[in-house]
Amino acid sequence: DPDSGDNGFLLYSLVGGQTNEFDINERTGQIFTVSVAGKAGTFNLEVQAADRGTRRLTAQTTVSVTVDSSSSSNIVMLVLNQKINVVERNIDEVQRVLEDNFGWNVYVVNIYSKEFERKARSSTNETQVWIIAFDEAHQEVPAEDVKRKLREQKDEIEQELEKVFSASISAAVGEAPAAAARPELTAAIVLGVLFAATFIAFLAYVLLDLKRKRKYGKQDSVKKVEIMEGIDNPWAVDKNGSLKSLEKPEHMYN
Description:
The protein is α+β, with helices and mostly antiparallel strands. The protein is 34% helix and 22% strand.
């Protein structure tokens, strides 16, 4: 904005889109991630720039951010004893200091603080800067090599950062958390567990049903035998060994 004074002082904000995953530096307009762990896809953010004049003028544009589901094992966490809003304002200088000391290209992957809310950003004097380095052949530098450089040149890096922040700086190497499982992999595991549980339950039901049928089958056989023993068998033999007559005795017809 070519205007001067309040008419030329711009403030940036996110007015639509996935504001839980991203945030914006209201003075510089720099967009950064808050939390996209385990997420992938394209996020459309509506960004607004507004001046502070009496007749406030605004302009909006859409920023599309694509998050890849793949992850790198060579991301290194650098922990600075500074507030997150201070680190955000000076992140370009932090990147320059690291590149000068490493001799590699350094990219800032994420800036993180335990305090997410905008109002609480100045309450935590510890900020994590996640970085990844690339050599001259544009290949990722192994995380252990980056950590070694950070430890070997810790004093030089802290001295340069003190000039940037105009304060005493502590730069420590942190341990980046393991990458979260991909959503589709997690879904496959859950479905597999559910299928296995269902199959086991079905198998148990079949076995119990067979056992029940066998039990009641034996009881029915015993009852049939008892019933047959209680009925005169026309083919049974009498005590003299002769076959009993099929005809009823005469007195039964009287």
